[in-house]
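hey so u asked for the seq, here:
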Amino acid sequence: MKRVCNIFRGMGVALVTPFCADGSVDMESLSLLVDKHLKEKTDFLCVLGTTAETPCLSIEEKREILKTVVERVKGRIPVLLGCGGNNTREVLHYLQNENLAGVDGVLIVTPYYNKPSQEGLYRHFKTIASATSLPVVLYNVPGRTGVNMEACTTLRIAADCPNVVAIKEASGKISQIEDILNGAPEGFEVLSGDDAITLELLTVGVSGVISVIGNAYPFRFGEMVHMAMNGRFSEALRMHRSFSELYKLMTAEGNPVGIKGLLAELGVCANYLRLPLVPASVFLQERIRGVLEQTAFE
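ran it, C-alpha coordinates below
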Protein backbone atom coordinates (compact mmCIF):
# COMPACT_ATOMS: atom_id res chain seq x y z
CA MET A 1 0.00 0.00 0.00
CA LYS A 2 1.11 3.56 -0.72
CA ARG A 3 2.13 5.58 2.34
CA VAL A 4 -0.33 8.24 3.45
CA CYS A 5 1.04 11.79 3.14
CA ASN A 6 1.97 13.55 6.38
CA ILE A 7 0.20 16.90 6.68
CA PHE A 8 1.42 17.59 10.22
CA ARG A 9 4.52 19.63 9.50
CA GLY A 10 5.93 22.94 10.71
CA MET A 11 4.79 24.55 13.95
CA GLY A 12 2.01 22.60 15.57
CA VAL A 13 0.67 23.47 19.01
CA ALA A 14 -0.43 21.16 21.81
CA LEU A 15 -3.46 23.11 23.00
CA VAL A 16 -4.01 23.74 26.69
CA THR A 17 -7.48 23.32 28.19
CA PRO A 18 -8.58 26.60 29.82
CA PHE A 19 -10.65 26.22 32.99
CA CYS A 20 -13.00 28.54 34.84
CA ALA A 21 -12.77 29.30 38.57
CA ASP A 22 -15.45 26.69 39.27
CA GLY A 23 -13.39 24.01 37.54
CA SER A 24 -15.48 23.78 34.38
CA VAL A 25 -13.91 23.96 30.92
CA ASP A 26 -13.72 27.56 29.71
CA MET A 27 -15.02 27.10 26.18
CA GLU A 28 -14.98 30.82 25.46
CA SER A 29 -11.25 31.10 26.22
CA LEU A 30 -10.62 27.91 24.23
CA SER A 31 -12.38 29.43 21.21
CA LEU A 32 -10.36 32.65 21.53
CA LEU A 33 -7.16 30.63 21.80
CA VAL A 34 -8.00 28.79 18.58
CA ASP A 35 -8.71 32.15 16.91
CA LYS A 36 -5.26 33.34 18.03
CA HIS A 37 -3.62 30.36 16.34
CA LEU A 38 -5.54 30.90 13.13
CA LYS A 39 -4.55 34.57 13.09
CA GLU A 40 -0.89 33.93 13.92
CA LYS A 41 -0.44 31.18 11.32
CA THR A 42 -0.03 28.07 13.46
CA ASP A 43 0.42 25.17 11.02
CA PHE A 44 -1.72 22.63 12.88
CA LEU A 45 -3.36 22.08 16.25
CA CYS A 46 -3.01 19.08 18.53
CA VAL A 47 -6.14 18.69 20.66
CA LEU A 48 -6.48 16.58 23.82
CA GLY A 49 -2.82 15.76 24.22
CA THR A 50 -0.76 15.77 27.42
CA THR A 51 -0.73 19.57 27.64
CA ALA A 52 -4.54 19.57 27.64
CA GLU A 53 -4.70 17.77 31.03
CA THR A 54 -6.63 15.09 29.18
CA PRO A 55 -6.46 12.43 31.94
CA CYS A 56 -8.60 14.74 34.08
CA LEU A 57 -11.30 15.37 31.47
CA SER A 58 -14.53 13.40 31.21
CA ILE A 59 -15.54 11.80 27.92
CA GLU A 60 -18.30 14.42 27.60
CA GLU A 61 -15.82 17.25 28.08
CA LYS A 62 -13.45 15.74 25.54
CA ARG A 63 -16.27 15.58 23.00
CA GLU A 64 -17.23 19.21 23.62
CA ILE A 65 -13.62 20.41 23.40
CA LEU A 66 -13.06 18.57 20.12
CA LYS A 67 -16.36 19.85 18.72
CA THR A 68 -15.49 23.43 19.70
CA VAL A 69 -12.04 23.30 18.12
CA VAL A 70 -13.23 21.64 14.91
CA GLU A 71 -16.08 24.11 14.47
CA ARG A 72 -13.77 27.05 15.10
CA VAL A 73 -11.05 25.82 12.75
CA LYS A 74 -13.48 25.09 9.90
CA GLY A 75 -10.90 23.07 8.00
CA ARG A 76 -8.44 25.95 7.70
CA ILE A 77 -5.58 24.06 9.38
CA PRO A 78 -5.20 20.36 10.23
CA VAL A 79 -6.45 19.04 13.56
CA LEU A 80 -4.52 16.23 15.24
CA LEU A 81 -6.45 14.44 18.00
CA GLY A 82 -4.73 12.86 20.97
CA CYS A 83 -6.57 9.62 21.72
CA GLY A 84 -3.98 7.10 22.84
CA GLY A 85 -4.09 4.99 25.96
CA ASN A 86 -2.71 1.94 27.71
CA ASN A 87 -5.70 -0.26 26.87
CA THR A 88 -5.52 -1.24 23.21
CA ARG A 89 -9.14 -2.40 23.06
CA GLU A 90 -10.37 0.84 24.56
CA VAL A 91 -8.44 2.90 21.99
CA LEU A 92 -9.92 0.76 19.20
CA HIS A 93 -13.42 1.23 20.59
CA TYR A 94 -12.93 5.00 20.70
CA LEU A 95 -11.66 5.18 17.13
CA GLN A 96 -14.48 3.02 15.80
CA ASN A 97 -17.35 4.62 17.72
CA GLU A 98 -16.64 8.31 18.33
CA ASN A 99 -17.61 11.07 15.94
CA LEU A 100 -14.28 12.13 14.48
CA ALA A 101 -15.63 14.41 11.77
CA GLY A 102 -13.18 17.25 11.19
CA VAL A 103 -10.24 15.30 12.62
CA ASP A 104 -7.32 15.01 10.20
CA GLY A 105 -5.22 12.52 12.15
CA VAL A 106 -4.70 10.91 15.55
CA LEU A 107 -1.80 11.12 17.98
CA ILE A 108 -1.27 7.82 19.78
CA VAL A 109 1.00 7.78 22.82
CA THR A 110 2.99 4.74 23.91
CA PRO A 111 1.07 2.83 26.60
CA TYR A 112 1.88 4.08 30.08
CA TYR A 113 2.11 2.35 33.47
CA ASN A 114 1.86 -1.22 32.14
CA LYS A 115 5.28 -0.81 30.42
CA PRO A 116 5.01 -3.19 27.43
CA SER A 117 7.99 -4.74 25.70
CA GLN A 118 9.13 -3.53 22.27
CA GLU A 119 7.09 -6.36 20.73
CA GLY A 120 4.07 -5.24 22.73
CA LEU A 121 4.52 -1.68 21.51
CA TYR A 122 4.74 -2.88 17.91
CA ARG A 123 1.56 -4.94 18.17
CA HIS A 124 -0.29 -2.14 19.99
CA PHE A 125 0.43 0.41 17.27
CA LYS A 126 -0.03 -2.00 14.38
CA THR A 127 -3.44 -3.04 15.73
CA ILE A 128 -4.54 0.57 16.15
CA ALA A 129 -3.23 1.70 12.75
CA SER A 130 -5.05 -1.20 11.08
CA ALA A 131 -8.33 -0.14 12.69
CA THR A 132 -8.47 3.42 11.33
CA SER A 133 -8.19 5.11 7.95
CA LEU A 134 -6.92 8.28 9.61
CA PRO A 135 -3.23 9.19 9.53
CA VAL A 136 -1.52 8.14 12.75
CA VAL A 137 1.26 10.02 14.53
CA LEU A 138 3.13 7.96 17.12
CA TYR A 139 4.10 9.66 20.39
CA ASN A 140 7.15 8.57 22.36
CA VAL A 141 7.53 10.33 25.71
CA PRO A 142 9.30 7.95 28.13
CA GLY A 143 9.57 10.57 30.85
CA ARG A 144 5.80 10.31 31.28
CA THR A 145 5.01 6.76 30.20
CA GLY A 146 7.87 4.82 31.75
CA VAL A 147 8.77 3.08 28.49
CA ASN A 148 10.96 4.20 25.61
CA MET A 149 10.06 3.08 22.11
CA GLU A 150 13.37 2.25 20.47
CA ALA A 151 14.25 3.40 16.98
CA CYS A 152 14.06 -0.13 15.58
CA THR A 153 10.49 -0.49 16.85
CA THR A 154 9.44 2.88 15.43
CA LEU A 155 10.94 1.97 12.06
CA ARG A 156 9.27 -1.44 12.09
CA ILE A 157 5.88 0.18 12.68
CA ALA A 158 6.54 2.81 10.00
CA ALA A 159 7.49 0.11 7.47
CA ASP A 160 4.45 -2.06 8.17
CA CYS A 161 1.75 0.59 8.60
CA PRO A 162 1.34 2.98 5.63
CA ASN A 163 -1.04 5.28 7.52
CA VAL A 164 1.52 5.83 10.30
CA VAL A 165 2.94 9.07 8.95
CA ALA A 166 5.15 10.46 11.72
CA ILE A 167 6.36 10.22 15.29
CA LYS A 168 6.38 12.93 17.92
CA GLU A 169 9.70 12.20 19.60
CA ALA A 170 10.03 13.51 23.16
CA SER A 171 12.64 11.08 24.44
CA GLY A 172 15.39 13.68 24.32
CA LYS A 173 17.65 10.99 22.84
CA ILE A 174 19.27 12.75 19.90
CA SER A 175 21.05 9.61 18.65
CA GLN A 176 17.77 7.67 18.71
CA ILE A 177 16.01 10.42 16.76
CA GLU A 178 18.82 10.45 14.20
CA ASP A 179 18.55 6.67 13.85
CA ILE A 180 14.84 7.09 13.03
CA LEU A 181 15.59 9.83 10.51
CA ASN A 182 18.31 7.77 8.88
CA GLY A 183 16.19 4.61 8.59
CA ALA A 184 12.75 6.07 7.92
CA PRO A 185 10.83 4.83 4.88
CA GLU A 186 10.04 7.53 2.34
CA GLY A 187 7.27 9.80 3.62
CA PHE A 188 7.62 8.92 7.31
CA GLU A 189 8.67 11.98 9.32
CA VAL A 190 9.76 12.99 12.81
CA LEU A 191 8.32 15.85 14.87
CA SER A 192 10.03 17.34 17.89
CA GLY A 193 8.22 16.92 21.18
CA ASP A 194 10.51 19.26 23.13
CA ASP A 195 10.58 23.00 22.45
CA ALA A 196 14.06 23.50 23.90
CA ILE A 197 15.78 21.15 21.44
CA THR A 198 13.55 21.80 18.44
CA LEU A 199 16.09 23.99 16.67
CA GLU A 200 18.80 21.36 17.08
CA LEU A 201 16.47 18.67 15.76
CA LEU A 202 15.46 20.81 12.78
CA THR A 203 19.12 20.99 11.78
CA VAL A 204 19.26 17.19 11.51
CA GLY A 205 16.03 16.79 9.54
CA VAL A 206 12.87 16.70 11.66
CA SER A 207 9.79 18.13 9.96
CA GLY A 208 8.44 20.33 12.71
CA VAL A 209 7.31 20.40 16.31
CA ILE A 210 4.25 19.89 18.47
CA SER A 211 4.93 22.82 20.75
CA VAL A 212 3.91 23.89 24.24
CA ILE A 213 5.35 27.41 24.22
CA GLY A 214 3.57 27.94 20.91
CA ASN A 215 0.35 28.30 22.92
CA ALA A 216 1.66 31.70 24.02
CA TYR A 217 3.78 32.75 21.04
CA PRO A 218 2.55 30.96 17.92
CA PHE A 219 3.80 33.53 15.43
CA ARG A 220 7.21 34.10 17.00
CA PHE A 221 8.00 30.45 17.73
CA GLY A 222 6.58 29.47 14.35
CA GLU A 223 8.87 32.00 12.71
CA MET A 224 11.86 30.30 14.34
CA VAL A 225 10.68 26.90 13.12
CA HIS A 226 10.10 28.08 9.56
CA MET A 227 13.44 29.90 9.43
CA ALA A 228 15.23 26.69 10.35
CA MET A 229 13.18 24.60 7.94
CA ASN A 230 14.22 27.02 5.17
CA GLY A 231 17.91 26.82 6.09
CA ARG A 232 18.09 30.23 7.79
CA PHE A 233 19.82 28.76 10.82
CA SER A 234 21.65 31.84 12.10
CA GLU A 235 18.41 33.84 12.21
CA ALA A 236 16.59 30.91 13.79
CA LEU A 237 19.31 30.62 16.43
CA ARG A 238 18.84 34.24 17.49
CA MET A 239 15.11 33.63 17.82
CA HIS A 240 15.72 30.38 19.72
CA ARG A 241 17.97 32.14 22.22
CA SER A 242 15.29 34.72 22.94
CA PHE A 243 13.19 31.86 24.35
CA SER A 244 15.97 30.23 26.38
CA GLU A 245 14.81 31.38 29.83
CA LEU A 246 11.17 30.58 29.11
CA TYR A 247 12.08 27.06 27.96
CA LYS A 248 13.48 26.40 31.44
CA LEU A 249 10.53 27.93 33.25
CA MET A 250 7.97 25.98 31.22
CA THR A 251 9.37 22.70 32.58
CA ALA A 252 10.46 23.80 36.06
CA GLU A 253 7.30 22.48 37.73
CA GLY A 254 6.04 20.28 34.91
CA ASN A 255 3.75 20.70 31.93
CA PRO A 256 1.25 22.39 31.62
CA VAL A 257 1.95 24.23 34.88
CA GLY A 258 4.47 26.59 33.31
CA ILE A 259 2.52 27.36 30.16
CA LYS A 260 -0.68 27.98 32.11
CA GLY A 261 1.24 30.47 34.28
CA LEU A 262 2.64 32.19 31.18
CA LEU A 263 -0.76 32.35 29.47
CA ALA A 264 -2.24 33.90 32.62
CA GLU A 265 0.44 36.62 32.60
CA LEU A 266 -0.39 37.34 28.96
CA GLY A 267 -4.12 37.50 29.69
CA VAL A 268 -4.92 34.61 27.35
CA CYS A 269 -6.64 32.39 29.91
CA ALA A 270 -6.93 32.06 33.68
CA ASN A 271 -4.35 30.14 35.68
CA TYR A 272 -6.51 27.20 36.73
CA LEU A 273 -5.53 23.53 36.58
CA ARG A 274 -7.24 20.34 37.71
CA LEU A 275 -5.95 18.26 40.56
CA PRO A 276 -3.60 16.53 40.93
CA LEU A 277 -1.92 19.44 39.10
CA VAL A 278 -1.72 22.79 40.84
CA PRO A 279 -0.80 26.25 39.53
CA ALA A 280 2.79 27.44 39.47
CA SER A 281 4.37 28.32 42.80
CA VAL A 282 4.69 31.99 43.71
CA PHE A 283 8.43 31.71 43.03
CA LEU A 284 7.93 30.31 39.51
CA GLN A 285 5.18 32.78 38.66
CA GLU A 286 7.42 35.66 39.71
CA ARG A 287 10.24 34.31 37.53
CA ILE A 288 7.87 34.09 34.54
CA ARG A 289 6.73 37.64 35.19
CA GLY A 290 10.32 38.80 35.47
CA VAL A 291 11.27 37.31 32.10
CA LEU A 292 8.31 38.99 30.45
CA GLU A 293 9.27 42.34 31.95
CA GLN A 294 12.81 42.04 30.59
CA THR A 295 12.03 40.60 27.16
CA ALA A 296 10.10 42.27 24.36
CA PHE A 297 8.11 39.50 22.71
CA GLU A 298 5.70 40.12 19.87
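The beta strands are 10-14, 44-47, 79-82, 105-109, 136-140, 164-169, 189-192, 208-211. The two ends are 45 Å apart (CA to CA).
lmk if thats what u needed
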